[in-house]
Specification:
Elements: E1 4-6, H1 8-20, E2 26-33, E3 46-55, H2 63-78, E4 81-89, H3 104-113, E5 118-122, E6 136-142, E7 145-148, E8 154-156, H4 161-170, H5 180-185, H6 194-217
Parallel strand pairs: 1-3, 1-8, 4-5
Antiparallel strand pairs: 2-3, 2-4, 5-6, 6-7
Protein name: MPN domain-containing protein
Family: Belongs to the EMC8/EMC9 family.
Organism: Eumeta variegata
Length: about 220
């Protein structure tokens, strides 16, 4: 059984995107570490190293989506990453299924190029400023269908990922997140969200330093 691992910055961007637009459906892409993939075959471990917020208005395969996919793919190649999945959050609080998610054609296009593609659905019912669980449902493409994956096979690199992202939500960091809708309105904005990535790294390093200090005291 393959395992899926998430870096904190990838998970954070998914949650922050959904939090910035609670009144809208949102979607984005998942990037995997290409160096750890054997090929594009099924049933292999996948490390999701980043997420790229796409839209809160333009959810479907339009010229805007094509521009975004092309630009993201080019950037990913430079960083030795590959587009390996798709995420979405539904507008309606009660809708937590793939069938209700926007932009499914984008997800299918990703699966055409990467047979092990992932589809993350934000679980609105578990979503809040204090995350007690990952608040996502993970599906993987297999035999032409999206199949729900047991969260036991999903891991996070950082033990304190929920604490870190909860802290960011409480501080209102979601207001600083840039998706492609924002970027296409103002090309000076950073759709890679480097500032958020640096904040995640800083919070993670601070927590790890605190733990190390406490261990030495013990």
């Amino acid at each position: 059984m393959s395992e899926i691992a998430f870096e904190t910055k990838a998970y954070a961007k998914i949650i922050l995107h959904a939090a910035k637009y609670p009144h809208c459906a949102v979607n984005g892409l998942l990037l995997a570490d290409a160096s750890k993939l054997k090929d594009t075959s099924r049933n292999q471990d996948i490390d999701i190293v980043d997420a790229v917020p796409l839209f809160h208005h333009s959810h479907y395969v339009t010229p805007m989506a094509e521009v975004a996919l092309t630009q993201i793919e080019a950037t990913a190649q430079v960083e030795n990453s590959i587009i390996a999945g798709y995420y979405a959050a539904c507008e309606n609080f009660k809708d937590n299924t793939i069938e209700k998610c926007p932009g499914q054609k984008i997800a299918e296009k990703i699966a055409d190029n990467f047979p092990s593609a992932l589809f993350v659905v934000v679980d609105n019912k578990k979503f809040g400023q204090n995350l007690e669980s990952p608040a996502i449902k993970l599906h993987q493409h297999s035999d032409g269908k999206w199949k729900l994956k047991d969260m036991k096979n999903v891991m996070f690199y950082d033990t304190y990922v929920l604490e870190t992202v909860s802290h960011m939500l409480q501080k209102g960091v979601q207001k600083d997140l840039v998706d492609f809708d924002n970027y296409l309105d103002d090309l000076t904005l950073d759709w890679t969200n480097l500032g958020i990535q640096k904040l995640v790294s800083s919070l993670t390093a601070s927590k790890n330093a605190t733990d190390s200090s406490e261990e030495k005291e013990d």
